[in-house]
Write a structure and sequence with these properties.
By secondary structure, the chain is an alpha/beta fold. Helices cover about 20% and strands about 20% of the residues. The chain folds into 3 domains: about 1-155, GTP1/OBG domain (Spo0b-associated Gtp-binding Protein, Chain: A), CATH 2.70.210.12; about 160-330, Rossmann fold; about 350-425, GMP Synthetase, Chain A, domain 3 (2-Layer Sandwich). It starts with a strand and ends with a strand.
C-alpha cells in the first residue's frame, strides 16, 4: 500500500547542565570557580531525500529523538553538544502540528532542509556566577529541556497537471501513452491506489509533470473510500484535466460525472475550482456513429463556462496531441514555481505561550531586572545574536506581557533591562 501520511513523535535534545567545581592546583588551595558549560541539545531536522517517494518507513518507526548535550566539566571544560537528528522525507512532504492541523513546514521547492525543533541550550557553569560578593558560587545553571511534538506527515505530489475522474475512465492509459510513467492498468475499479507521476515531453523541448490522481467517488470529500488520501494530491496542481468516459461504456453519464467530481473538489477545498480546467472526453473510438453525440452534449454543458472539451482516445492517441498542447499553453501563462504551503505554526510559539512564571523588578533608577523560569526557557532556545532569533525575542517580550509589565514598573526610554547576564536598552 502506498503510504502518504504518518503520525510521528519528535523530540529535540536537552541541554547539558552547567558544572559546579573549583580550581584545585598545587600552591592554589582555594582557587576560583572553574565549572564548564553544558553542551547544546541536538536539533530535529527534516531533509528532502530525492530517492524517497513514500512515507512507508514512518509506519514502522514512530518516535524520533535527538541526543542530549553533555554536562560541563572541571577546568572550564565545555560539555559535548548533542547530535542533531536528521529525518529524511520525500520531496512534497508537508509537516503539520497533529493537534491543530496547521502547517509547520512544506518540504518542497527550495525548502530542502528545515530545523523543526531546536535543542535546549546548555546551562552555564558556576564560573559565570562569581562576583565581588559571591566568590564561591555553588550554583550552575541546568540545561534547557528539549522540545517535543506529535506531528503529521502528509505527502502531496508535486505535479503541474492533475488527471481527475471516476475510476476506469482511462487516466492511467493516457498517462502511460504520453509520458515516461508505467502505471499498472487493468479493467476494474480502483486499479490505481497511489498517484502516478509522468513527465510529458512535447516538441520544442517543452515539458510538464502530470499526475494520475486515483479514481474519485461521490462522498470523497467526506472521506468515503480513500477520498481524503487522494484529494490532498490535487492541491499542488495548477491545471486539472477532467477525464470522462464519453462512450458511457459502464452506463455512467459523463456530464453528471464531471459535475459530481467538481462538487467533491469544492467541498474539499473551494480554491481548487479557481484553477483552469480542461475536459478530456475519452473512449471516442467506442461511440456508435448512429447514436447521439455525447461529446457535443459535454461541450454544450461546459464550454459556455470557458472549460474547453477535447474528444480523445487514450488507446489510439486520437486527439491527445491537441489536448496536451492546450494544457501547456495554460501552464505557460502561470508561475513556474511549485505550489508551496505557507507556515501556519511555529513550534517556538509553544515557548512563548507557556504558563511558566516570571518577575519584573526595578533594581534602581534606570535599571530593571526580568527573571524567572519562563525567561530562562525562552533564552535557552533562542539565539538572539541572529536576526531571526532577535526578532523572535522581541515578539516574545511583546506577546508575553513583559513589555507591558516593565512600563507599569515605570521604565523609560534608554533605561537598561537585565536578563540572566544579558543587558538591553529599552526603546519603544
Amino acid at each position: 500500500m502506498f503510504a502518504d501520511s504518518a503520525k510521528i513523535f519528535i523530540k529535540s535534545g536537552k541541554g547539558g547542565d552547567g558544572h559546579v567545581s573549583f580550581r584545585r592546583e598545587l600552591y592554589v588551595p582555594n582557587g576560583g570557580p572553574d565549572g564548564g558549560d553544558g553542551g547544546r541539545g541536538g536539533d530535529i531536522i527534516f531533509e528532502v531525500d530525492k530517492g524517497l517517494n513514500t512515507l512507508t518507513d514512518f509506519r514502522h518507526v514512530r518516535k524520533y529523538a535527538a541526543t542530549n548535550g553533555e554536562e560541563g566539566g572541571k577546568r572550564r571544560c565545555h560539555g559535548k553538544d548533542g547530535q542533531d537528528l536528521i529525518i529524511r522525507v520525500p520531496e512534497g512532504t508537508v509537516i503539520k502540528d497533529f493537534e491543530t492541523g496547521k502547517v509547520i513546514a512544506d518540504m518542497s521547492g527550495e525548502h530542502t532542509r528545515e530545523i523543526i525543533l531546536k535543542g535546549g541550550r546548555g546551562g552555564n557553569g558556576n564560573m559565570h556566577y562569581a562576583t565581588a560578593t559571591m566568590q564561591v558560587p555553588k550554583y550552575a545553571q541546568p540545561g534547557q529541556d528539549g522540545q517535543e511534538l506529535w506531528v503529521l506527515l502528509e505527502l502531496k505530489v508535486i505535479a503541474d497537471v492533475g488527471l481527475v475522474g471516476f475510476p476506469n475512465v482511462g487516466k492511467s492509459t493516457l498517462l502511460s501513452r504520453v509520458s515516461n510513467a508505467r502505471p499498472k492498468i487493468a479493467n476494474y475499479h480502483f486499479t490505481t491506489i497511489n498517484p502516478n507521476l509522468g513527465v510529458v515531453d512535447l516538441d520544442g523541448h517543452a515539458s510538464f509533470v502530470m499526475a494520475d490522481i486515483p479514481g474519485l467517488i461521490e462522498g470523497a470529500s467526506e472521506g468515503i473510500g480513500l477520498g481524503h488520501a487522494f484529494l490532498k494530491h490535487i492541491e499542488r496542481t495548477k491545471v486539472l484535466i477532467h477525464m470522462v468516459d464519453a462512450a458511457s461504456t459502464e452506463g455512467r453519464d459523463p456530464v453528471e460525472d464531471i459535475k459530481a467530481i467538481n462538487t467533491e473538489l469544492e467541498k474539499y477545498n473551494p480554491e481548487l475550482l479557481k484553477r483552469p480546467q480542461v475536459i478530456a472526453a475519452n473512449k471516442i473510438d467506442a461511440i456508435y456513429a448512429d447514436g447521439d453525440d455525447p461529446v457535443g452534449r459535454i461541450r454544450d454543458a461546459f464550454e459556455k463556462d470557458g472549460i474547453k472539451v477535447f474528444a480523445i482516445s487514450a488507446v489510439s492517441g486520437q486527439g491527445v496531441k491537441e489536448l496536451l498542447y492546450h494544457v501547456y499553453s495554460l501552464l505557460k501563462d502561470m508561475d513556474d514555481a511549485p505550489v508551496i504551503f505557507e507556515r501556519e505554526f511555529d513550534p517556538a510559539d509553544l515557548i512563548v505561550n507557556t504558563t511558566l512564571p516570571y518577575t519584573v523588578e526595578k533594581i534602581e533608577d534606570g535599571l530593571y531586572s526580568v527573571e524567572g523560569p519562563r525567561i530562562e526557557k525562552m533564552l535557552g532556545y533562542t539565539n538572539i545574536d541572529s536576526e531571526k532569533g532577535f526578532e523572535f525575542f522581541q515578539n516574545f517580550l511583546k506577546t508575553s506581557g513583559i513589555l507591558e509589565d516593565l512600563e507599569k514598573a515605570g521604565i523609560e526610554e534608554g533605561d537598561t533591562v537585565k536578563m540572566y547576564g544579558l543587558e538591553f536598552d529599552y526603546y519603544k
